[in-house]
Design a protein that fits this description.
43% of the residues are buried. It contains 35 helices and 27 strands. The chain is an alpha/beta fold. A nine-stranded mixed beta sheet has the order 8-7-6-9-10-12-11-13-14, sandwiched between helices. A five-stranded mixed beta sheet has the order 1-2-3-4-5, sandwiched between helices. About 4% of the residues have low confidence.
Length: 935
């Protein structure tokens, strides 16, 4: 269950008559517990309560009680030995009137409220559903509740107004929802000259059967679009005339309202009863955006970008510098004034703004700094000098663009209330400004310079409608010219294999003529290139969130060589971390943050996750395109090892239509029942077979055995099917193989070698790459790489953390999985010269890893190296063997263990740079000698 579904279930529970006996089970059911789990609790099989309540191990101890005994019962639950034994995180007591609960694992305020109000605290209990609940998420409880109610209303309205859900009218529907959101906020913050006046007007003036609800709402909207001077002629009903003129285009145009059923009217009134002062525009926009998106509605409550993650972008981009300047200014009035003037000219531009999260956070953080400046200058009542129009955005879809503007308007009002007081905020709020500063359009097709222009090139323009932006609209000037521009955002990633034709066309428009390899780029690469192009025309710094794939593999050479050519360098970066949303099962994607500029100072900042929610930062002289503090080198594929290592090759490609491959049962039957000689049936191993222990076999016949093998009727039938399949192929190379139906299409081994196997595709979640030793007679699939007949110390290299970080950095990814490459990963892997003692030590390490695995037979690689819920399940003896291997190898590199993966990569790139320079020098020397010999 997601957070919104949980909130709905909890709200429904609170509305039902209180049943003391049933409440604990209904409460647990609301958090996603299955009926089988509840049955076991009811029977007592898993209920360990010693107080007559319900105790779920590792989760919660619940007890209902007589009226007036809630606090005493909660204390008893906390003191209960059963609570401690079961490691319960929560205790909860209620009598149907009072509701109290406490989280025993954190030092936080307990919940204490009336029973009817406990749904307001549902976020407190989200860990019961496996949902991580940090303070910021718990404080978003209102936004989730509001989103849930709005979603119910939206769905209900579409039932009675299906035409409003069509492409032609979807904009009208979304625009209607934006108007409602504004009205709910305005009526609870006194913007409408009273509390709850919008909802109460609808409740009072519309019939209970909802027959005239749409007319009442339409008249209210018409009032908000009518100037005070024009009201007498407008003929507004008296009950609507008291609503202020809102302007800003929010209520201009059509005042059409969808038809309301009785249920829809009830939902509307319920939404209005919520306390909209609590709205958090930081995340509310992203969640409400999901209401209007059919594909996203099923994941309501998970559609926000967390504030800490946004600040990982904005802080090093410019906020940290502003705070540093504030510290330097102290109480110096002149320095404070200069800083305030500087801030008033800063432009923040998000060319993939969605519902405005980055812009809202940037605005609120800047207002906080400005408020501190005003406090130090004894000008607390000073009106803000930071205009909303300095926060520009581009968004492809119209509804998120509308919500982005609305979120910024709400953020401005809330900041005014916080820093200047309610009265001052109200005085300046209405009418809204009709200036249009969020553009709806395709960011990769639009001219960013026209939307966020350098000094003096903009065209002043007031939109006819705040919530409508034609793509060719001229943009308004900034109120304060000559400021800094900061580009930020979280653009759509989309790997090359999953891009639509239109997205491919977008990239072509940007990259064609610059590189022939653009088709392999992620979609987000377009934003990086546009940001670099923008920076060549005006002073700007850009920081974008991206999947880490743009800083790995062959994309590095394609994209970052172009960005470097534009004069841009990496000013700061945050190495890989999870960009996670609200639910634990929505683990997010692995991303990086890259800041680029063409005026970088002497030092750059490299951020990395430190575990436990912490971040480390390192000042470095350079950050290369792999996000490593090392020289700007590109790791290019090599056909042969450049490091003195053995040659690694693909396994064998069957190209057989499946007729040379068998599962273990069919192979056994062929030998037993069809008299197939066992020497022609071999173990067949690819990536999944190796990792998951899947038993497969193949037919393996060499040329001199074909005549004899073909006499077996079963083998003969298989060979003929292979011949037929290959003969019918359109490919000449495959057709030519029809003359050899007994063998694989591509053969790279004799079948008598010992093998060190490396799966071509494997999960990035394991701490080590899967690799191992296979006995002679095993046939390798082309889904694996192999080292044939080499010393075992080679496996120690592959099984090391050093090799893991190298492959994860320089090789291509398949989604988030590692895609191993012999030419890009193995042949380029920097290895110091190994002594015979080094090799002997590494041989022993590899043997210890194999022995540790053998001790857990028949556990598979997948089971032995499993990572579940972010925790490695590797057996201790196997982990110790790997740790020993890492220690031995890393001492060969630097004489001690590396501190972290960043340090490992730093050393590997240092060695790679030296290796490349040495080989380049040798190459030039060879060329010179040849030239001298010819002379």
């Amino acid at each position: 269950m997601n957070a919104v579904e949980i909130e709905e279930a909890i709200s429904a529970l609170a509305e039902r008559p209180f049943d003391a006996e049933e409440f604990p089970y209904a409460f647990l059911e609301a958090f996603g517990n299955k009926e089988t789990t509840l049955k076991r609790l009811r029977k007592g099989d898993s209920n360990k309560s010693d107080l007559g309540g319900v105790l779920q191990t590792n989760n919660i101890h619940i007890a209902t009680c007589k009226p007036g005994e809630v606090t005493r019962t909660l204390e008893a639950l906390k003191a209960s030995p059963a609570t401690a034994r079961a490691k319960a995180r929560f205790v909860l007591a209620t009598d149907g009137e009072l509701f109290e609960a406490e989280d025993l694992t954190i030092d936080d305020a307990p919940v204490s409220c009336t029973y009817a109000d406990f749904p307001n605290h549902f976020g407190f209990f989200l860990p019961l559903a496996g949902i991580t609940t940090v303070k910021q998420v718990r404080e978003s409880s209102f936004d989730i509740r509001a989103t849930s109610r709005l979603n119910r209303l939206y769905v209900e309205l579409l039932k009675d107004n299906p035409e409003w859900g069509t492409a032609q009218r979807r904009h009208d529907m979304n625009h209607f929802m934006a108007r409602l959101i504004f009205c709910f906020f305005a009526e609870d913050t006194d913007i409408f000259n009273g509390i709850g006046v919008f909802t109460s007007a609808i409740e009072r003036m519309s019939a209970r059967d909802s027959s005239n609800t749409q007319e009442v709402i339409s008249e209210l909207f018409r009032a908000m679009n009518t100037k005070t001077t024009e009201r007498a002629a407008a003929g507004l009903p008296r009950w609507a005339d008291g609503f202020p003129y809102v302007n800003g285009g929010l209520f201009s145009g059509s005042t059409d309202v969808p038809r309301f059923s009785r249920i829809a009217r009830s939902y509307l009134l319920h939404i209005g009863s919520l306390d909209w002062k609590k709205i958090n525009p930081d995340i509310f926009g992203s969640m409400i955006q999901a209401v209007a998106d059919d594909d996203e509605r099923g994941a309501l409550g998970m559609h926000y970008t967390s504030v800490p993650n946004i600040l990982k972008v904005l802080n090093p981009l410019f906020l940290d510098d502003l705070r540093e300047k504030l510290d330097e200014a102290g109480d110096n009035a002149r320095m404070l004034l200069n800083l305030r003037k500087r801030m008033s000219k800063i432009r923040v531009f998000d060319p993939a703004c969605g519902s405005g999260n980055f812009l809202v956070i940037a605005y609120k953080e800047m207002r906080a700094i400005e408020a501190e400046i005003n406090r130090r200058r004894d000008e607390a009542d000073q009106r803000t000098e930071i205009p909303l129009t300095n926060f520009r955005g581009i968004e492809l879809r119209d509804f998120p663009a509308e919500i982005a503007r609305l979120a910024l308007i709400i953020a401005e009002y809330q900041c005014d209330v916080l820093y200047r007081g309610q009265q001052e905020a109200l005085r300046d709020f209405l009418p809204l400004d009709a200036k249009n500063w969020i553009t709806c359009g395709n960011a990769l097709r639009l001219d960013w310079l026209s939307i966020c222009p350098p000094t003096g090139t903009g065209v002043k323009h007031h939109a006819d409608d705040l919530f409508h932006t034609p793509l060719n609209q001229a943009q308004i000037d900034f109120e304060n010219e000559g400021g800094e521009t900061y580009i930020c955002g979280n653009p759509p990633y989309r790997g090359s294999q999953w891009q639509t034709d239109e997205q491919k066309s977008d990239l072509k428009a940007i990259f064609e003529g610059r590189t022939t390899n653009w088709k392999s780029l992620d979609y987000v690469a377009g934003w990086f290139m546009k940001a670099a192009d923008y920076g060549t025309n005006t002073t700007a710094v850009a920081a974008l969130v991206s999947t880490n794939s743009v800083c790995q593999g062959r994309q590095v050479e394609t994209l970052w060589s172009l960005i470097s050519r534009s004069g841009h360098e990496i000013a700061f970066a945050h190495t890989s971390f999870k960009w996670a949303n609200l639910a634990s099962h929505n683990a997010g994607v692995t991303v990086v943050i890259v800041g680029i500029s063409n005026h970088v100072g002497r030092t750059r900042l490299l951020f990395s996750d430190a575990g436990g929610g912490g971040t480390t930062v390192k000042e470095v002289e350079n950050i290369n395109a792999y996000l490593v503090p090392a020289p700007n080198v590109i790791v290019a594929p090599q056909s042969k090892p450049r490091n003195g290592l053995a040659e690694m090759s693909f396994g064998n490609m069957p190209n057989d239509g499946g007729y040379l491959l068998l599962d273990a049962e069919d192979a056994a039957a062929a030998i037993k029942e069809r008299a197939v000689p066992s020497r022609y049936i071999r173990p067949f191993v690819g990536s999944q077979e190796f990792i998951r222990g899947i038993e497969r076999r193949c037919i393996w016949v060499v040329e001199e055995e074909y005549h004899s093998a073909n006499k077996n009727e079963w083998l003969h039938e298989r060979f003929e099917r292979v011949r037929s399949q290959r003969s019918e192929s359109d490919r000449a190379t495959t057709k030519a193989l029809a003359s050899m139906p007994y063998r694989f299409g591509e053969v790279r081994q004799t079948g008598r070698e010992s093998i060190i196997a490396i799966p071509a595709i494997s999960s990035e979640n394991r701490d080590y790459l899967p690799t191992g030793l296979l006995p002679p007679g095993t046939i390798m699939s082309n889904k694996c790489y192999a080292l044939f007949d080499v010393p075992l110390w080679n496996m120690a290299l592959i099984a090391s953390r050093l090799h893991w970080v190298w492959i994860g950095t320089v090789c291509v990814r398949m989604r988030t999985d590692f895609s191993y490459s012999n030419t890009l990963g193995w042949n380029t892997f920097p290895v110091p010269t190994l002594t015979e003692k080094n090799k002997a030590d590494l041989n022993r390490c590899a043997e210890d890893i194999l022995l540790a695995r053998e001790a857990h037979f028949p556990a598979t690689i997948a089971e032995l190296y499993e990572v579940r819920d972010g925790v490695s399940r590797m057996p201790e003896d196997l982990r110790a063997a790997h740790e020993r291997n890492d220690e031995v190898l890393e001492r060969i590199y630097i004489g001690r263990r590396f501190k972290n993966d960043t340090e490992r990569l730093e050393k590997l790139f240092e060695l790679y740079t030296k290796m490349s320079a040495s080989q380049e020098s040798s190459k030039k020397l060879t060329i010179r000698k040849k030239a001298e010999a010819r002379a």
